Amino acid sequence: MIGVIIGARPALFNAMAAYTFRMHNRARPLIEEFAATFDRRPEIVSIAPGRVNLIGEHTDYNEGLVLPLAIDRYVLVAAAVRQDGVIRARSVDFDQRDEFPAAAVRRFRGSRGWRDYVRGVVWAFLNRFLPVTGADVLVTGDIPIGAGLSSSAALEVAVAGALNRISGAGLAGADLALLCQKAENVFVGVQCGIMDQMVSALGVAGHCLMIDCRDLTHRPVLLPAGFEIIVAESGVERNLADTPYNDRREECAQAARGLGVDSVRDVDETALAEARSDLPDHLFRRARHVVTENRRVRECVVALEDGDVTTAGGLMCGSHQSLRDDFEVSTPELDLLVELACVVDGVAGARLTGAGFGGCTVNLVREGDTAVLEEKVIQPYIARTGLPSVMHVLHASGGLEVTDV
Ligand code: ADP
Ligand code: MG
Q: Cα(77)–Cα(334) distance, rounded to whole angstroms?
């Protein structure tokens, strides 16, 4: 069953206010660009956020717990129905176009890119026997691409939100997220879990979202007042990440088989310790990461709900150690970013976020200390590695919003 527990009334009110602000600010230039491209007005605007995962890494495909937040960086889509059954799409940021019949979509011949995400979503509608109308579609956004902030999921969710509205398909919430995940898994060919699409579709302003990736139940958890979420890019691209990521998925499946369970999620720490001699050491450590990470997510939710930022931050640091030593998905660069951050007064916690093997770290930083992070972490990191690190101060946003314009 898919359920959601709504947070306190003032938080909900703030979320509504943020929505209106977001739409007002961003819709107008999009509408103008759409008119310049297609010589007509759009009917709807669909905006979906990127995400950063606070804690709960590599747990999503193990049917475990994650605690991401939707961020105030978005993919924006404007769209209008076409009666001829053709989808014409334009990416503002890549300055490229695409055109294909909505009812017979195939992979784009040529380089893999934004077109395959758009086509993949259309394919996923058809795959579910949902209606998809022809449409003019304009795509733009401000999520750094490939930085680990899941611009791809935001693109899928924004496109799905747009097509869902103009085609009258009637998808909502987790169902829409699942359709987008299928587009990425099967059509684009990236074996991502469900976390990114879920939080992009269902994020709540000012909150992170605890998601149980087994049954997709989810609930907003209020983020602490007086703290910022800062993402620091390591400057190392994850373009070699597919292979080790798929290796870890396979190792987790092997560990589950060795433990005699459907998923590593199904063992507790005691049972795992007792089974240590039954598993090769590396599989034992992969499983230990997943089991302890699920516990850290639960403990982090309790700590955040108690306003205990110190404990929440400590759990983030514990997560990093586990990802480094047991799951072995960190890099010397990510370790350095975390090491530098952890000794800075005002940093409650820091860890690698996303798949690892490059990408970025997430830092929970006292408000007002962001300049300190730049001085004590980013600058020394650049000096020592020569890599182009930048940081992004992010705020927890609401999820997908689709509006008639
Ligand atoms: P990420 O970690 O950001 O999700 P991915 O490699 O999974 O990185 O997805 C990035 C891809 O998503 C880009 O190569 C591009 O095809 C698509 N994408 C992201 N943002 C946009 C955008 N604003 N416009 C068009 N395509 C985008
Ligand atoms: Mg992605």
A: 33
Task: Provide the residue type at 15 as one letter.
Answer: A
Among 8, 55, 345, CA closest to 229: 55
Query: Ligand 1: which residue has its CA nearest to atom 9?
Result: 152
Q: Which of 72, 116, 196, 326 is catalytic?
A: 196
Q: Which of 76, 155, 192 to mutate to test the pocket of ligand 1 (most atoms within 8 A of CB)?
A: 155
Q: Are strands 86-91 and 134-141 parallel, antiparallel or unpaired?
A: parallel
Angle at 277 between CA 273 and CA 283, to 5 degrees: 80
Q: Where are the alpha helices (DSSP H) in 39-172?
A: 114-127, 151-167
For position 12, what pLDDT does the model report? 40
Report how far Cα 327 is from the mean position of its chain's Cα atoms. 20
Question: Rounded to an integer, what is the distance from CA 26 to the centroid of its chain?
Answer: 21
Place of tokens 């989808």: 87
Query: With the CA atoms of 345, 347, 350 and 354 taken in that order, what torsion angle do they form, in degrees rounded to the nearest 10?
Result: -150
The tens digit of pLDDT for each residue in 42-78 reads 999 999 999 999 999 999 999 999 999 999 999 999 9
Residue with tokens 């009666």: 83
Is the Cβ–Cβ distance between 212 and 65 less than 8 Å? yes
DSSP classification of residue 345? T
CA distance 168 to 139: 20
Share of the chain above pLDDT 90, in %: 83
Collapse the DSSP code of 82 into the 3-class scheme (helix H, G, I; strand E, B; otherwise coil) and give the result. Answer: strand
Atom of ligand 1 minimally distant from the CA of 140 = 23
CA–CA separation, 115 and 126 (whole Å): 17
Q: What would you measure as the largest C-alpha separation in the chain, in angstroms?
A: 68
126 — alpha (psi -120 to 50), left (phi > 0) or beta? alpha
Give me ligand 1 centre to Cα 162, in Å. 17
State the Cα torsion 169-214-114-203 to the nearest 10°. 80
For residue 4, CA distances in Å to 72, 210, 221, 338, 398 come to: 22, 10, 11, 33, 14
> Of 140, 158, 137, nearest to 200 (Cα)?
158
Ion ligand 2: protein residues whose beta carbon lies under 5 Å: 150, 152
Helix axes 151-167, 195-202, angle to 10 degrees: 60
